[in-house]
Amino acid sequence: QQQQQQQQRRHYEELAHKSGFSTEQIKNLHKRFRQLSGNKETISRANLDSIPALANNPIKKQIIDAFFDKRNQRQDDEVGSLEEIGLEQFLMVMSHFRPPAHKSGEEERQAARRQKLRFLFNMHDTDGDGIITLVEYRKELLSKSGAIGHQAAKAIADAAMLEVASTNAPHMAPDDFYEGITFEHFQQILKGLEMESRMHIRFLDVDTTTMRCGKATS
């Protein structure tokens, strides 16, 4: 048993180095991982799909997909999707929600912000080509149009893309700009957005400030 504890401690230390979490945070997140997976070694989409707090979330599918998106594993932006994820992969996704350390310098804070924005960008860039197209934006908005109707949602999507064009590429015709929003444009659009309090994962019963896990049954 002592040998097993030593092995687990070494494993946690290795994961801490990769993810930026402390070993104590990883211990807590591992508990939540086991709750979600039913004490299995991997988590599937079905495990996350059954979380009650996600049931009425309008971007439930995008959130779940983000956990299985290879681009969010911080491995050279490899495009593709995983069927299941293990603890390390779970932690790498979770690390996008980790607040920067108090002692972080400006360069580190900017790098962390860029990673968070990239994570959000990936959620919208569904085909992984590095551009959020009008088709992708329309599809996302239409999927949750609800009472406003498809025509209204389509008009909103078109107007939003035109607004982005006028802000970020004033010398381009709207039809030219419809090829899509690049990550650079995306960063510009969200330039003034405060990220720390907005990127949270409360549906996992995880405190994103301390990364402690609450008691949960799902």
From TrEMBL:
InterPro entries listed in its UniProt record: CHP3 (IPR052490), EF-hand-dom_pair (IPR011992), EF_Hand_1_Ca_BS (IPR018247), EF_hand_dom (IPR002048)
Any one GO molecular function term: calcium ion binding
Membrane topology category: Lipid-anchor
Subcellular location: Cell projection, Lamellipodium; Cell projection, Ruffle membrane; Cytoplasm; Membrane
GO BP, one annotated term: cell differentiation
Keywords: Calcium, Cell membrane, Cell projection, Cytoplasm, Differentiation, Lipoprotein, Membrane, Metal-binding, Myristate, Nucleus, Protein kinase inhibitor
Region called Disordered, residue ranges: 1-23
UniProt superkingdom: Eukaryota
EF-hand domain span: 112-147
A single cellular component GO annotation: cytoplasm
Similarity-based family: Belongs to the calcineurin regulatory subunit family. CHP subfamily.
Protein name, entry field: Calcineurin B homologous protein 3
